[in-house]
Amino acid sequence: MENNIVWHTHPVTRIERERLNEHRAAVVWLTGLSGSGKSSIAGALEQALHHLNIHTYLLDGDNVRHGLCQDLSFSDRDRKENIRRVGEVSGLMLDAGLVVITAFISPYRDDRDSVALRLPAGQFIEVFVDTPIEVCEQRDPKGLYKKARKGEITQFTGVDLPYEAPLDPDVHLDGRQPVAALVAELIGYLKGRGIIKI
Ligand SMILES: Nc1ncnc2c1ncn2[C@@H]1O[C@H](COP(=O)(O)OS(=O)(=O)O)[C@@H](OP(=O)(O)O)[C@H]1O
Ligand SMILES: Nc1ncnc2c1ncn2[C@@H]1O[C@H](COP(=O)(O)OP(=O)(O)O)[C@@H](O)[C@H]1O
After folding, report:
1. Of 66, 105, 155, 157, which is best to mutate to test ligand 1, by the most ligand atoms within 8 angstroms of its C-beta?
2. Considering only Cβ atoms within 10 Å of each terminal Cβ, which end of the chain, N or C, has fewer?
3. What would be an example GO MF term here (predicted)?
4. Following CA atoms 184, 132, 30, 124 in sequence, which dihedral angle do they give, to the nearest 10 degrees?
């Protein structure tokens, strides 16, 4: 259907914003089970990058679901929409020249791949926070696994809905390692890819 909307190209581009920032823009997309460590790693990574004078923004599932996505449930359909919206916001922030860090379960490969396809090639970095469900369940800081096992919460990832692990992630983290070591691994990766120079 024709919608009469035409893309408008503006004079200041992402490349120029990146030059001003003295680093490249990227989306560092953390995916993993609830309790795998996404938020902890994302927060510590942002702090480390901030100290290196990198312009960052962190989008976290729990927080985004208080506002932008407060109308969405945990059904497959709503998770798809959640990830689509977050992907679009990440794309805008990437265009603004930021290193965007996202922490969403994002359990479905198709949804993650759709986000990657909407972003400039090479600027979507898929990070698998690989923590066995037994470990996540033992951590259970919010008591959600306990509730899901008792049937008090349904559609819980890893209990009655699947988690599709990335087949070929850019970075594969062992979520049982200390957060500081995982952050160092990510910083090393960003340097290796020429996103940050320091
Ligand atoms: N049913 C169900 N399944 C999974 N998670 C649940 C559910 N209900 C609430 N929560 C809490 O919501 C957080 C996950 O939100 P996300 O936006 O990251 O999920 S998704 O990407 O849309 O699948 C998740 O946060 P994390 O534990 O930080 O991953 C949970 O705290
Ligand atoms: N690498 C780690 N080693 C040990 N405990 C961790 C690690 N990462 C996170 N945790 C702990 O596990 C729990 C879940 O971490 P969190 O970052 O909230 O995970 P997620 O965002 O994936 O749900 C928290 O209690 C946190 O302190």
Report:
1. 105
2. N
3. adenylylsulfate kinase activity
4. 90
